[in-house]
Amino acid sequence: MLEYDSLACLPSSEELPDSDDTPVDNELQDLIPSLLKAILAMVWANRMDWFFGVDMGVYYDPNQPPIVPDGFLSLGVERFFDENLRLSYVLWEEEKVPTLTLEVVSQRYRGEYTTKKDEYAKLGVLYYVIYHPTRRRKPRLEVYKLVNGAYQLHSDNPVWLPEVGLGIGMERGIYQGITREWLYWYNEEGKRILTPEEQAEQAQNRAQVLAERLRAMGVDPDSI
Question: Above 50 in pLDDT, residue 14?
Answer without folding.
Answer: yes
